Amino acid sequence: MVKLSKVVLSISLCLLAMTTYSQNSAASNAAKLSRAKYSGTDVAKELVEQRTDTTFTRYYSGGFEVDATRTWREKIDYTGRGLEDNKYQISSSRYKRDLTTDGLALDMERTTTYADKSAKKSILVTKQFLVDGLVEQITYNGDDRAVKCFDKSGQLLNEKGCMLYTTDKYPKEKLAKLTTNLQNQIFKTVKKNKGLVPKYILVNIESDYKTKSWFLSLDFPKSYDIDSKMYTELVTAIMVVLNNEKIQDFHFNKDINGNYYNHFLNLPINFRS
Questions:
Q1: DSSP 3-state assignment of 130?
Q2: Alpha-carbon gap, residue 262 to 271, rounded angstroms
Q3: How many whole angstroms separate alpha carbon 242 and alpha carbon 203?
Q4: What order of strands is seen across the sheet that includes strand 135-141?
């Protein structure tokens, strides 16, 4: 059992698209692995070294990988292939699933080109397919970042981006408020309930624009007993905070034509004794 006085709770709150979480902890390591699997970079080093041509598919719900036999909301097809000049390329196509019709819609393409077998020097290009045929393309080359927004005919509209949170970051004050509220609620939960506290919890939150509600996905260590009372109390505590958080415009992304989109937040929560 972990006593409250010996528990240090650290929460890092960032956009799901961002991959920075610097603390060396169980939560950070688990979050890095989860993001690597989602992007396909978890197998990059091996594929680049072997120059293996391959294709594979993974299924996700709320950003966490699930078995294809379970309810999944995203399908990602990955392709790895060797190029000339000792280069290697890993591409992925992400499809969103409509759970009502079971239809699939291409949502994003991601291509990483590795310059050598070290799998360190790379150029990343992402394309997000939006309403009205808009396409937002972002290229990362070392420290350089280039953004372009195209219309449905492929004409360049601007070099700032199609989406609100590409040009203007998510409000920091909203992140700070949510972080504080979660920390306070979780500490209260741990204090009044007996039971083992997990080493970490990965929390993915999606604000659903159609239903104006939250979609919550959680990932605990495999060894943690999810049938325990503490598990139930921790999940309830997180949901209480979200239910008290009003979903307003800033919880959704928006394109330059005024169309709204679901928005994602990723919270690695780390408990250290």
A1: coil
A2: 29
A3: 12
A4: 64-66, 54-61, 74-82, 88-97, 104-114, 122-129, 135-141, 144-150, 156-158
**258 vs 163: CA distance, rounded Å:** 9
User: To the nearest whole number, what is the mean pLDDT of the chain?
Assistant: 88
Got the DSSP string for 230-273?
Answer: HHHHHHHHHHHHHHTS---GGGSEEBTTS-EE-EEEEEEEEEE-
The residue length of the chain stands at 273
Alpha carbon 36 to its chain's center: 10
Q: How far apart are CA 9 and CA 240, in angstroms?
A: 18
- What are the structure tokens assigned to 63, written together? 């950003």
- What parts of the chain have a pLDDT lower than 70? 1-24, 272-273
Radius of gyration of the chain (CA): 20
On whether the CB atoms of residues 68 and 59 are closer than 8 A, the answer is yes
Structure tokens, 14 = 């960032």
Alpha carbon distance, N-terminus to C-terminus of the chain: 10
Instruction: State the Cα–Cα distance between residues 237 and 227, nearest whole angstrom.
Output: 16
**What percentage of the chain has pLDDT greater than the value 90?**
62
Residue 161 φ/ψ, nearest 5 degrees? 130, 160
Dist CA 265 CA 204 (whole Å) = 6
Pair 244, 188: CB distance under 8 Å: no
Q: Which of 80, 75, 17 is nearest to 44 (CA)?
A: 80
Instruction: Tell me the pTM.
Output: 0.87
Nearest to 203 by CA among 179, 224, 180: 179
**Distance (Å, rounded) from C-alpha 146 to C-alpha 199?**
38
